[in-house]
Amino acid sequence: MRKRSWAAALAPTLMLTLAAGATCAAGAVTLLNASYDPTRELYEDYNKAFAAYWKTRTGDTLTINQSHGGSGKQARAVIDGLPADVVTLALAYDVDALVKRGKLIPDTWQARLPDNSSPYTSTIVFLVRKGNPKKIKDWGDLVRPGVGVITPNPKTSGGARWNYLAAWAYALKQPGGNATSAQQFVRKLYENVPVLDSGARGSTVTFVERGIGDVLLAWENEALLAAREMGADKVEIVVPSISILAEPPVSIVDKVVDRRGTRAVAEGYLKYLYSPQGQEIAARHFYRPRDLKVAAKYASVFPKILLVTVNDVFGGWTQAQATHFADGGTFDQIYGK
Amino acid sequence: MNAARVLGATYAADRTEPLHLRRRPRAGLNVMRLLLILVALGFLVLFIGMPLVVVFSQALSKGWHTYVAAIADPNALAAIRLTVLVAAIAVPSNLVFGVAASWAIAKFEFRGKSALITLIDLPFAVSPVISGLIYVLLFGASGWFGPWLMEHDIRIMFAVPGIVLATTFVTFPFVARELIPVMQAQGKDDEETALSLGASGWQTFWFVTLPNIRWGLLYGVLLCNARAMGEFGAVSVVSGHIRGLTNTMPLHVEILYNEYNYAAAFAVASLLALLALMTLAGKSLLEWRRPELKYGALSADRQTKRGMT
Amino acid sequence: MAASAAAMNQSFRRPRRVLPGFGLTLGYTLVYLSLIVLVPLSAAFLRSAGMGWEGFAAAVTTPRVLASLRLSFGAAALAALINAVFGLLVAWVLVRYQFPFKRFVDALVDLPFALPTAVAGIALTALYAPNGWIGRLIEPLGLKVAFTPLGVVVAMTFIGLPFVVRTLQPVLEELDREVEQAAATLGASGWQTFVRVIAPTLWPPLLTGFALAFARGVGEYGSVIFIAGNMPLVSEITPLLIITKLEQYDYPGATALAVVMLVMSFTLMLGINALQTWAHARHGKK
Fold this sequence. Notes:
Oligomer: heterotrimer
Strand order of the largest sheet of chain A: 2-1-3-10
Distance between the termini of chain B: 27 Å
Largest interface: B-C, 120 and 114 residues
Number of helices of chain A: 16
Radius of gyration of chain A: 22 Å
Distance between the termini of chain A: 65 Å
Number of strands of chain A: 12
Strand content of chain A: 5-15%
Shape of chain A: globular
Largest sheet of chain B: none
Structural class of chain B: mainly alpha
Strand content of chain B: under 5%
C-alpha cells in the first residue's frame, strides 16, 4: 500500500520529464551546426543562403539550427552527445578531440575538404583607442611599461591561444629569437595584462565598454565587427608586422550524420562554404576568403600581413597545446612561481 | 523559533494586553529607528537597487520600440516558453518533495535528522558548474547511462529533460528549506487534536496543516520559481545552446549580449527582474485582500496595534 | 461526543507516533533526494576516485588551486559575514518599521535569485568598473573593486543576500513581542532587550543564513567571472579552474576540485545544522 503511494507520487514527475523529451525528438529535415562564439552573424546569413540553394537543388525544405559557445565547450558538448551534424570550430585541436575522445570522426578529417578543411581564415590584429594615444604599432610595443593589454585566458578561450601563439611567433622572428627569448617576451606581455576574461567577446566588452587597457588583441573579424558595432569614433585597428594565420576548421560529424541520415546535406552544407557565394558571405563578415577572385574583390578590407602557420612554427595544434596550454605548459609557467 | 512555539498560547493574551504597554516610542528611539532604516536602505540600494537600475536603463537605452522588439523576437519567445515549461515541471516537483520532507522532519523524531537536513541543503553548496556536469557524467554519450539512452533514442542531455533535471537540482532545497522551520515552529498539537477528533490523515493535512504553513509554502514556491527561471550556470552546461530550441531566457540573454546587442539582452533580463517584483506583488495583493491570512491571527493583531499608535 | 471520546481514547492507546504519513513522506523524501541529488553527485565522486589518491592530492594542491581555494572560501566568508550583518539589519527594518515603498523594497530582496547570474555580473561590473557610476566615485580614493578580489566579494554579497534576509524574516515576523515589551517594562534598555531577549532566538536562523550564503558564494561562477579579473594566483576562483580543467578534457581533475569544494562546504553546513539541532533540543528541554 505504502509503496504504491510513493510510486504514484513519483510517476507524474518522471512522466512529465520524459514527455518533454519526446516532443524534442521528432522533426523534419534539420541540421545542427555547433560553432564557436564569433561566427554567429556569419552563419545566420550563410544558413539562409544555403537553405535557399538546397531548396532549388533538391526541393527539400531545410531548417538549420545553430549552437554557439566557446570552441572547447562546443567540442565537449558534441563528445558528450550534442547531436551536431557539422562542427565549425575555432581550432583544429578541438576537432581533433572529436577523434580522440569521442571517436566520432575519422582521424583523416582534415584531408576531406580543401585547404585543411578551413574554408575561410582570419588572423590576429590590434584594436586601439581612437587616435592611438599610446602609439602602438607592433608586437614590440605591447611589452612597454604602462601599456595595458587585453586578451582572454588561453586556458578557456580558443581565440586567446591564437593571440598567444602570434606573440610567440613574433618573438621567434626577432634577431636571435629562440624559445627562451620568446617565453621571456610573452611573459612580459602578460605582465601588462590587467584582466583575463574567459572568452573573446568578454575581452572586447572589457576593452570597449569598461575602458580598461590600451590595446585589445582580437580576431581580425572581431576587430572589424567591433569597430563597426561600437562606432569608429571610439576605436581603430592596428595591423602588426607579423601575425598568425588562423584556420578555423569545419567537419561533418560522421557518427551523427550516419545515425540521422543527413550525410548528404551535411556534406553539401560544408562544400557550399567553398563556393563563390559562400566565400562572398564569409568575406562580408570579415573572414578572409580562400577563393582568389573573392579575395581580390575584398582586398581593401584585408590588409596584407606576413602570416605564419601553426603547422610551420609550432608543429601543429596537438604539439602547440601540449607545450603551451596544457597544465604546466609555458602559459602556466608565466603565472607559476 | 522557540519563541514562535509558544505563539499560539500568547497571541490570545496579546489582544487583551493592558493599555499601558502600548506607549508611543520615545524620541531617541525614533532617531535610532531612522538611522537603521537609512543604513538598511543604503545597503540595499548599493547592492541591489543600483544593479537593477543598470538593467533597466540599459534595456530602455534604445527606446521602448527596441525593448518590445527584443521580447517579441521569435527566439526570445521560444526561450520564454521553454523557461516557463521548465519551471512548471521543476517547481511542482520540488513543492511535493518540500512538503513531504518537512512533514517527515518537523513532525517526527528520528536518527540522522540533521544529516538529512544537510543533504537537502547540499545543492546550495554545489557549484552551478558542477550541477550541470554531474548530469553529463550520468547521461552524456560517455556517461553511465549514455550509451543505453542513445540506443533507445531517448534524449536527456542537450534537450528539455536535461534542462529540467539540472534546474530541479539547483532549486531542490528551496521549498523544504522554507517549510521545515515553519512546521517545526507550529509543532504537532493541532494535527494530533484533529486526528483525535476523527479526521483522516489527508483531512488533517488539508484542513489543519496546509492553512498553517501556506505562507511559508508560498515563499518557498516564489523563491524556487525565481531561481528556476534565472538559473544560468548549470543549464548552460546541459542545454547545448541550440537557438530557438534549448535556449532558456538566461542563455538567450547571454547570446544577445555576446552579439553586442546590449539593449535586447538587458530587455530579456529585465523580464526576469520583473518576475521577482511581480510575484512579490501578487503575494502582497493576497495579504492585502485577506490580512488575517498572514501568519494566522498574529498580523490581525498587529493591524489593530498599528491602528492604535 | 461519544465517537470523539472513543477516538481520543484510541489515540491515547497508540504508541509515540500518532501522526500518519511518516513512512510515506520520509520514503518519498529519500527516494527523490537520491534520484535528483545523491546519485548524480556520486557520479562526480566516482569519476574523481578513478584518478587514485596520489593523483587526487596532486591535482588539488598546486599553488594555483590553493590560491583559488583561499580566494573562493575567503571571499565567500567575508561576503557571508557582510550579509549576516546587513541582512539582519534589512530583515529587522522590513519586519519592524514602516516606511514608504516598503513592499517594493521587500520585493527587491529576491532580485539576486531571479536575475541570471551572468546579468548580475555584467551589471555589477558596469557599476564598479573605473568608468562606471560607482567606480568613478571610488577610483580617486584609491579603491579598486572591479577586476580585483574585492570585486569577487561584491558579487558574492549580491547573490547571497536573499539567503540571510529570507531565513530571518519569518522568524522575526513570528517573534513574540510580548517578551520584549515585558523586558522593556522591567527596565531593560532597547539594546539590552535586543542582546538578551531577541538575539538568542535569532542566532539559529542567522547561522543558517550565513551558511547558505557562504555555500552559495563558494560555488558561484556566472556573476563572479565578469567582475573578478581572473588573474591567476590573485583573482582566480576555484570554479574557473574547474572550467579550465574541463577545457582540457580533464574530467577527473575537474571533479577532484569539485569534490574538495563540496566536502568543505558540506562539512561547514553539517556543523551548523548539528549545532542548530543541538540548540533546538536543549531549548526544548528547558
